[in-house]
Structures are given as structure tokens and as C-alpha cells.
Specification:
Blueprint: H1 4-15, H2 19-26, H3 43-53, H4 57-61, H5 67-70, H6 74-87, H7 95-115, H8 118-138, H9 143-154, E1 159-162, E2 165-168
Antiparallel strand pairs: 1-2
Protein name: HTH cro/C1-type domain-containing protein
InterPro entries: Cro/C1-type_HTH (IPR001387), Lambda_DNA-bd_dom_sf (IPR010982)
Domain HTH cro/C1-type: 8-60
Length: 173
């Protein structure tokens, strides 16, 4: 895995700017990014860099550089999760327990976000997906159908952002 500073240097080079210019444009202190290999940056700073370059947080911190991870798409990963669950007989287990597990993972996600812990945030989102794949199977659904139905429901939804939250048009007062 590359260092976060090397990843940002690469992104800056691709865009033809210096790290100093990036720091200035994002309102970071001079030399702040060079300290990130020793002192983990806050999530909002990494998000700012990712948004600036229009890349994922993975690209900034270097998590996307794992060749094994790159070779697996979501369909293949979902199949692997389903097989993993089946091998452990989780597909036949009590969905109530899986729902409690989802709550546990959600709590870890909230903690990771609140504390700005990128690793915990990433892990929690992934864990929640795993739990949802298993839960959907326990209930006789496929995660793909659940996602498709959810998208069909929201695709034409209108509303507006209020304090950083999208509010459906019918909920606007």
C-alpha cells in the first residue's frame, strides 16, 4: 500500500499542481499534508482532498491499490459473501439476530465517523453490506433485488438539501 502522501503527490502531478497549492486551496496549514504519513488526517480533510481531485477516499489513502481487491467486482464479492454465509449455515439462521448484528455494525460506523477513524468507517460500511447480504438471504430476498427496488423508489424523487440532509418533497413543510 502506498503512503497517503505519495498518493496525493501522484494526484497533484496528474493535475499539474503542487502539494503547497493544494493545501492553500483547501485551507490546510502549510506542510500539513506531509505530516499525514505519521499522524492520520481527519476524515473531513481526506474527503476534501478526494472531492478536490474527484476521486474516492480509497484513491487518496491508497486502499484501492490492492490488486486482489481490484479484481473483484461487487457481483463476485456478493457471491463470495453468500457462499461464506452458506458454508457457515448463516443463510438459515434467525434474521432477528442478523438485524441485531446490523445495529452493532451501524454503531461502529457512527463511532468511526464521529472520531474521524477512516479504517473503522471503511470496515463498518463493508461489514454492514455483508450483514445486509446475509439478512436478505435469510428473508428469502436477494440483495440485488432489494437495491433495485430501493433505487426504483428514489430515482425520480424530488426534494432539497436542508442542513446537509436530503428531504423528500412530500416531507417539506
Amino acid at each position: 500500500m502506498n503512503s497517503i502522501v505519495n498518493n496525493i503527490k501522484f494526484l497533484c502531478t496528474k493535475l499539474g499542481i503542487s502539494i503547497a497549492k493544494l493545501e492553500k486551496e483547501l485551507g490546510f496549514g502549510r506542510g500539513a499534508i506531509y505530516k499525514w504519513d505519521k499522524n492520520s488526517p481527519s476524515l473531513d480533510k481526506v474527503q476534501g482532498v478526494a472531492m478536490y481531485f474527484d476521486v474516492s477516499i480509497h484513491d487518496v489513502v491508497g486502499w484501492g491499490n490492492n490488486k486482489n481487491a481490484e479484481s473483484m467486482n461487487l457481483d463476485k464479492l456478493t457471491s463470495e459473501i453468500e457462499q461464506w454465509a452458506k458454508d457457515r449455515k448463516l443463510d438459515k439462521a434467525d434474521p432477528t439476530k442478523q438485524t441485531l448484528k446490523l445495529g452493532e455494525e451501524y454503531g461502529e460506523l457512527c463511532q468511526g465517523l464521529a472520531k474521524g477513524h477512516l479504517d473503522q468507517t471503511l470496515d463498518s460500511i463493508g461489514d454492514m453490506y455483508v450483514v445486509l447480504v446475509i439478512l436478505s438471504r435469510q428473508l428469502g430476498f436477494s440483495i440485488e433485488d432489494c437495491i433495485k427496488d430501493a433505487y426504483e423508489e428514489i430515482k425520480d424523487r424530488k426534494g432539497k438539501m436542508i442542513n446537509g440532509v436530503f428531504v423528500k418533497e412530500e416531507d417539506l413543510v
